[in-house]
Amino acid sequence: MPKSVKAARVSNSKYTKKLIYFLLSLIFGQQTRYNNTLLLMKKLITNIRFGLLYIISLLPLRVHYIFSDLLAFVLHRIVRYRYQVITANIARSFPEYRYDDIKKLTKQYYGFMCDIIAESIWSLAHCANAIRERVKVENLHLLDELQQSRNNVLIVMGHCGNWELISGMIMEQKDREEKSFAFNPVYIVYKAAHKKSSDAIFKKIRMHEYKKFGSKGGVLESNSVIRHAIKHREDKGVYVMIADQNPVGGKEIIVDFLNQKTAMLGGPNYLATKLNMPVVYLYMDRVARGRYNMRFTLIAENPSECEEGYITRTFAKLLEQDIKANRVNWLWSHKRWKRKI
Predict the structure, then answer these.
(1) Maximum Cα interatomic distance, the chain, rounded to a whole number of Å
(2) Is 22 exposed, middle or buried (0-12, 13-18, 19+ CB in 10 A)?
(3) I need a labelling partner for 258 at 20 to 30 A (CA). Which of 21, 94, 98, 140 fits?
(4) What string of DSSP letters covers 5-69?
(5) Based on C-alpha coordinates, what's the Rg of the chain?
(6) 0.70 exceeded by the pTM?
(7) Alpha helix locations (H) across 163-264?
(8) pLDDT at 4 over 60
(9) How far, in Å, CA of 59 to CA of 103, rounded?
(10) What gap in Å lies between CA 269 and CA 92, rounded to an integer?
């Protein structure tokens, strides 16, 4: 190959790369270099995925429920998504159940799980007030009173109801007084997904949902919440954590939960004790399709004075009571007891 032709091809390739970098810089509003092109492409893919979900979310909720029913049938009858996990979790948790009872609750759970997916997608294109209409909150004054007397408050909850709609507890801006907890930052704590691509879209969706409520604060990854809380210990704020996940490394506390020894996350207990942060239990009950009630219960006002593990054991006890009261209203497909204690 003549040197002139080879040089021309190299030159064309060089200018093509420059054009791609320039177009990416226009899309993302920043200068792009070769070593971060992959990062920007991933961001572009995340934005495209979010855009597609947003378009789907424009459909009426009743249409989303039609898709939810179809998905529940496919996952239950055809794919058998985590069927063994679900039935085993239910059987161990309710030893009094016969086969027909387990089968009935399992079928109900698939419908509940798919409704959560449908409602979470639907909420993307709908305003904060539309979500508030579907989420009713009891005894919110408890948070206001604790926020007035203390800087920080920790809210712990389980995978009950539709936890993706918990921002619905934040009232409208016009109703927020200085003594209201929502006047101060509210931080929603989440656990990062294993796949970075999935975590990117989940984080974008949660930030989108949070921002529409116009509250201070934001979304925090669970690995950074302790450092963040310690750094801002003198500032007022509320932290919301889902605390019934299976701990992978780090601190854990063993409790009796649903008739079996269970490892619970030790982080919330450690954080509350270290900062003497009041702890409130949040239960989200599904009272009808697309309708939820949220209720707050004080666990400890001065955690530093409690015996070790008290907060986690009390949380587990309250959560168990609520699961038994509405048995379909929990994440049974989670591999909660994959590790034997």
Answers:
(1) 83
(2) exposed
(3) 140
(4) HHHHHHHHHHHHHHHHHHHHHHHHTS---GGGHHHHHHHHHHHHHHHHHHHHHTS-HHHHHHHHH
(5) 23
(6) yes
(7) 196-211, 225-231
(8) no
(9) 32
(10) 26
